[in-house]
Write a structure and sequence with these properties.
mainly alpha; 3-stranded antiparallel β-sheet; 3 strands; globular
Amino acid sequence: MAAELTGLADDRALLGRTSTAERVSDILRSRIAEGFFPPGTRLSEDSIGGALGVSRNTLREAFRLLTHERLLVHELNRGVFVRVLTVEDVEDIYRTRRLVECAVVRGLGEPPYGLEGLAAAVAEGEREAREGDWKGVSTANIHFHRELVALAGSARTDELMRSVFAELRLAFHVVDNPRTLYEPYLARNQLILRTLQRGERAEAERMLVEYLDDSLRRMVEVYGRRVRDSAP
């Protein structure tokens, strides 16, 4: 936990003089998504509050916000923990992704589309793969889907999916062979990008449906096995 707390202390400067529970929750959400606090980790009020330089009440409010987002769970008489997803949670997350991401592509309208962010995420994933950083590939893949959702131009949709993607990463951090899980989607991200660049919205949606269905099957298989193996 010491290394994670050192990182949080570095984030203290981000709070400035306008320290709020929302900003604390933004920092913790990012740290959880990046795997600094893996699923099942107990979060110490004293240690984290001291590292960030915030009051106990502010930190508790931040914990409450992240509990509402399903990233944390409060266990009576034990404390606050980073949530461990069930297989059913993973399936529900993918149902939400399919509903939202496919609807975004379906509603794009006439081309051309603003695909610069999507192209940058594809390039990021390919760069991380060349360097053998499969955790980085996972992050780039989330960036790809976040940029896809951003094509809707809706701040509310972006906020909704920010929480969904953060929750999904709780499952990613439990996977023991990320290359096997993520490598096949590098090429598929590139294909979806090229299809949208050609203005073929319906074909891109069809590809995305297959993509998410395949991803769900692979994720349930890998994650389910991992959860069973780690069960007491």
